[in-house]
Amino acid sequence: MAIIIAGPTASGKTDLALDVARIIGGEIISVDSRQVYRGLLFGTAKPAGVYDGGVYTVGGVPYHMVDFLPPEQIYNTGLFVSAAKKIEAEILAKNKIPVFAGGTGMWLQAYFSGMDKLPEADPTLRAKFSAMTKAQLHQKLASVDIASAEAIPAGNIQRVMRALEIFELTGIPASTLRTGRFNANLGDNFFVYLDWEKDELNRRIETRTNLIFDGMVNETRALLLRGFTAETPALKSLGYPQIIDFIDGKITRAAAIEKIVILTRQYAKRQRTWFARYKNKIIFNGAQATAEKILGEYNKWKK
């Protein structure tokens, strides 16, 4: 059995998971599709850590599945599931409790409830798609898979490309291959969801964006100086395209911050919608949640 700590962005999952793991002597498995990248710290809310014996460690707590992927590589759900299963097995073999923490709902769903069997990524196709604009990609998707095009915004270029890739490799629309099954429970695990009032979460998002903006600028400049571009997968993460526009002088600092805040709020809304479907979650008021309260409920749940 595992402990799962999930919630929308800026809800405080990371700090809470670290507190829980410290108390129980557990190890964390990050469930965040952006924290996997090296070189991205501020914009992904990755906790600052060091490598100890080859393991990313935060304040003495092993924090797996972060800071290991080069910026130019693409990572997907299947790769996460495969890697995380090995890590969880190693944690359990040490008689420790794995603490899954993050907000990438699709990864959690696939890990604990399974996923559809779809073709692996094709680098040649991805290279071809990368030469097309967002509008062109979305238009092409609409011509072969209207259901996917209606479900995936043009701005979500990775999902658009994946749907196109599935069609190109199989000749069948991704919307047909995906069963759409959704298990409303994440197995026999202690599942914590951090809930916030909408206005308070929006305030937290705005405050965090202002605090991390300069750090995002610095790490983006560093990656650009290394030869990476706006088309690099890591730099397509939420907020980084706006940082690049600011660095290039296309928008002002204020405009960049405003746009990132809006996009982050929209992302948080999608996360709340996703997690609302689960029936076995235990909801904690984000403003009042502490590791001690969570572990108190965990001990009751175990009985």
Which descriptors apply to this entry?
single chain, 303 residues, alpha/beta, Rossmann fold, Histone, subunit A, 2 domains, 12 helices, 50% helix, 12% strand
Q: Would you mind describing this structure in some detail?
A:
- This protein has 303 residues and is of the alpha/beta class.
- 50% of the residues lie in helices and 12% in strands.
- It has helices spanning 13-24, 77-93, 105-113, 123-130, 134-144, 146-151, 157-170, 174-177, 198-225, 240-247, 253-275, 291-302; strands spanning 3-6, 27-30, 50-52, 55-58, 61-64, 98-102, 190-195, 281-285.
- An 8-stranded mixed sheet has the order 3-4-5-2-6-1-7-8.
- The radius of gyration is 19 Å and the shape is globular.
- The chain starts with a strand and ends with a helix.
- The relative contact order is 0.17.
- The model has no long low-confidence stretch (mean pLDDT 93).
Short description:
The protein is an alpha/beta fold. Helices cover 50% and strands 12% of the residues. Helix 1 (13-24) crosses helix 12 and helix 9 packs across helix 11 (253-275).
As for the number of domains, it is: 2
Overall number of strands: 8
- The unreliable regions are none
Total helices: the number is 12
Tertiary shape: globular
What would CATH call the class of the largest domain? Alpha Beta
Largest sheet: 8 strands, mixed
CA(first)-CA(last) distance? 13 Å
Q: What name does the CATH topology of the largest domain carry?
A: Rossmann fold
Q: Helices and strands, in N-to-C order?
A: EHEEEEHEHHHHHHEHHHEH
| Average pLDDT rating | 93
